[in-house]
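Homework help board

Subject: predicted structure for assignment chain

Our instructor gave us this sequence and asked us to write out the predicted structure in token form, then describe one feature. I got the tokens but I'm not sure how to describe them. Can anyone check?
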Amino acid sequence: MTYHQVSIWTDGAVKPNPGFGGYAALLVYGEHQREISGSEANTTNQRMELMAAVVALETLTRPCEVTLYTDSKYLKLGITEWIKKWKRNGWMTSTKQPVEHRDLWERLDRQVQRHLQVTWKWTKGHAGDQNNERVDKLAVEARKQLADVTMRKVDQP
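My token output:
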């Protein structure tokens, strides 16, 4: 049986933080590529990094072998190390505080379980990785578009 091997690059962008946010992902399967992006108002960079990964994995219609590249250590460490402890501790951190962005962590965890394998790779941001630069640009564009639309609405009488 042949499994689909998909490479994904994700990124989030927020300005100011918290503020207008954008997220983006690039999915690569063989010769095929798909870009996805979105935005939210009044959000944080951490939420946008998570959202990019969640939406990318949710986009895949069947279980795949995935390699996901992120420049967010928060995302990579959260899903590969911290989440096990959070779930064991009833979604509380080591300092007995509720885990931030639990809703997205739970969605992400469901997607990871759905796929055959998800390998998480950290890549340094703004360091010449062409696909990382692409998703950064898409996330910034999504953020700016939301900010522009929102500001135009505010300026209208």
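Reply (TA_rk): Your tokens look well-formed. For the description, you could write something like this. The domain at 5-155 is CATH 3.30.420.10 (Nucleotidyltransferase; domain 5). That's the kind of observation they're looking for.
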